[in-house]
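For the sake of transparency, this paper describes our internal protein records without simplification. The remainder of this section carries one protein's record, kept here as part of the documentation:
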Amino acid sequence: MRKGVKFSVGIWSFGPTVERFCPSGYREDMPVEKRLEQASKIEGLGGIEYHYPQELSEKNVDKIKELSKSYGLKIVIVAPNLFSEPKWAKGALSASNEKTRKEAIQRVKAGIDLSKELGAAVCIWPGQDGYDYPFQVDYRAMWDRFTKSVKECAEHRTDVKIALEYKMGEPKTHILLATVGKTLNLIQEIGLNNLGVNVDFGHAFMAYENLAESIVLISRYNRLYHTHFNDSFAHFDDDMIVGTVHFWETLELLYWLQEVEYNGWYGLDLFPYREDPVKAVQQSIRNVEFMMDLLEKVDRKELREILEEGEATNMQLILRKMLGEKRIETK
């Protein structure tokens, strides 16, 4: 375990990994207690993230607290589930139906209350707040409802951090919080200090974002509240083992997380359909630690100088040096 680096994982990573081609999932749907037992086998893992109220609720919180403590796993994130029930089909926090919208707001507030009790943060992913077709919604009214709902939730307890997680699409073809820019715009409009961003790597790749730049942009406003490490081929939210596709982009991201002095959790949001979840999480942690080791092999002053000059060809020498090249080559 690296000093000062805290890894957490979503408890859903140990679930049945359901998909539309295999609706029963690829493995047994174990209870939360069994999933925690699996998570406890992972070296370097220090935190767990839960959906509310499916995996963590007022009904089981005492039992989960006790189990988590016994395994040395801190409850890091409570994520109100606003996406997996039919009632959210036409929106949750942005729903035009007032009853549905109030139910969504109340769920978030209840999740915030639970987070306060646990010393955790809240993560809101508004997966059903969006639209599918042209001429389907009134964009002005939808954004107005969504903004007011998020503000009401954030005002409920201003001493609890709320991280907004953006994504281009899925389950809706267009989700309102699609990009880092839209998310920061909403946060700036609302103007509450407890609102920040959770950057999910796969979501950012879908938006054709450079992770490192997005991290730096968010950090300019001190709004980087959480991270969700994974990987993908950018066409879909694959939630693969970290660093298996976008190796260099992830390496650059880790460099900039250090530069902006990020001290939050390195969250893992994986969906290992056909892989052993314990191994998938473990290898993700190993890959991140390996990349951090690579960054320690280069002179930071030299690296910064090359970044300042903006010469990509000179940077290749540094990158190969990270990977162990011994040949002496002049710029």
